[in-house]
Design brief:
The protein is an alpha/beta fold and about 375 residues long. The protein has four domains: about 1-40; about 40-95, Laminin (Ribbon); about 155-290, Type I PLP-dependent aspartate aminotransferase-like (Major domain) (Aspartate Aminotransferase, domain 2), CATH 3.40.640; about 295-360, Aspartate Aminotransferase, domain 1. The chain is about 35% helix and about 15% strand. The protein contains twelve helices and 16 strands. The strands form six sheets. Strands 9-8-10-11-12 form a five-stranded parallel beta sheet. A three-stranded antiparallel beta sheet has the order 13-16-15, with helices on one face. The chain starts with a helix and ends with a helix. Bound molecules: pyridoxal-5'-phosphate. Pyridoxal-5'-phosphate binds near residues 171, 244 and 263.
């Protein structure tokens, strides 16, 4: 009797297994898993999205953000706070904090991208474009090049027909590459690099850093011209249009070899009188997004010949005129960082003005 019972159970078990296998084979398992998503393993994109959303949901009181590639504590990403804010959730404002308006920072665009999170999110696989080259044997994306030409044509800020395009990681390295490309190959008469004061300090800094035999930084274009030194000397002129730090649309002074730095030649920053049509034009995505906002301050009181120091005493860090080879009576404030930075800057400026008003009243 026992023997028959074991035999029957064995046959029933085999039948159930066969039926279950057929059910799974015909996709019934998927339907069952779909009806119970909590037990379905996540796909790699879903897992990436889940991680991204979890870190974006960490609250940093609106004064910072946590990142998946940022600092981790107890296995969890932690808040990275904006300047002057601290604490685990960035809610603590340091009362006497100095505001750093030395340079801009695209973090002011964070709220925009958060509002456009769906349209702007990108998931990149670990194996995305691992090759050194594209399938058409180019080293630079032809698709990207097409879009850049289209962008310039829509904006109307550069003639791109018949021009070669070279990509860099930011424009700083392209400025340097352009100097190499245009400079004299004769080390006994190196090329002289010039820019009109006030000029973007990186031109000089990069030249000094690379310490080349083929070129040297010679300073202000206008003084060079008034000293009549152009004859028989090799000159490369930087034309920064619009200029950093004063926003002026500069033109070539000497009309020889030129490098047009158009970092800020975008309509959110300046009216575009017409497309630039020069031999060597450099644009950058870093300023296309609009963080080129600064203001150039002049201290008028006779004794305030170091305007940066005046502001620093009022707990504001600015960038002094001499950094741009101009006078220290001028200083530059970058207005664009986070909203918090901007509000703190206004607060410090208000404090500075009321201190000044009080001292006038007590005189
Ligand atoms: C006039 C000018 N040119 C070039 C650059 C460099 O920009 P990028 O971030 O593309 O290296 C800057 C950056 O401040 C700039 O002000």
């Amino acid at each position: 009797m026992k023997k028959y019972c074991y035999g029957t159970c064995f046959l029933i078990s085999i039948a159930i297994n066969i039926l279950f296998s057929i059910y799974l084979h015909l996709g019934g398992g998927d339907r069952w898993v779909d009806k119970n998503p909590e037990i379905r393993p996540l796909t790699w994109t879903e897992k990436a999205a889940e991680e991204a959303e979890a870190v974006a949901a960490i609250s940093c009181s609106g004064h910072g953000l946590a990142f998946l590639d940022g600092r981790i504590s107890d296995g969890q990403p932690v808040c990275e706070c904006y300047d002057c804010y601290g604490g685990t959730d960035c809610s603590e404002l340091s009362p006497g904090c100095t505001v750093d308006a030395d340079s801009g920072d695209p973090i002011f665009l964070e709220p925009f991208w958060m509002q456009n999170a769906v349209a702007s999110a990108v998931v990149i696989s670990g194996w995305h474009r691992m090759s050194y080259r594209y399938a058409d044997y180019t080293l630079m994306s032809t698709e990207l090049e097409t879009y850049i030409r289209k962008l310039h044509s829509i904006v109307g800020n550069a003639v791109t027909e018949g021009r070669y395009m070279v990509f860099g990681v930011g424009s700083s390295q392209l400025l340097s590459a352009a100097v190499y490309a245009l400079s004299s190959e004769n080390s006994s008469s190196p090329s002289n690099l010039l820019a009109s004061i006030p000029f973007y300090p990186m031109y000089k800094a990069q030249t000094v850093l690379f310490n080349s035999e083929n070129f040297q930084f010679e300073g202000d274009t206008n003084s060079w011209q008034s000293n009549n030194r152009t004859n028989n000397t090799d000159v490369i002129e930087f034309i920064t249009s619009p200029n950093n730090p004063d926003g002026e649309l500069k033109k070539s002074v000497l009309g020889g070899k030129t490098i047009y730095d158009h970092a800020y030649f975008w309509p959110h920053f300046t009216p575009i009188p017409g497309p630039s049509d020069n031999d060597l034009m450099i644009f950058t995505l870093s300023k296309l997004t609009g963080h080129a906002a600064y203001v150039w301050v002049k201290c008028e009181r006779e004794e305030d010949d170091d305007c940066g120091a005046v502001l620093e005493a009022g707990k504001i860090i600015s960038r002094s005129g001499s950094v741009f080879s101009s006078k220290d009576r001028y200083t530059r404030l970058s207005l664009i960082k986070s909203q918090d930075d901007f509000e703190l800057l206004l607060k410090r400026l208000t404090e500075l003005v009321s201190l000044e008003n009080n001292s006038i009243e007590t005189m």
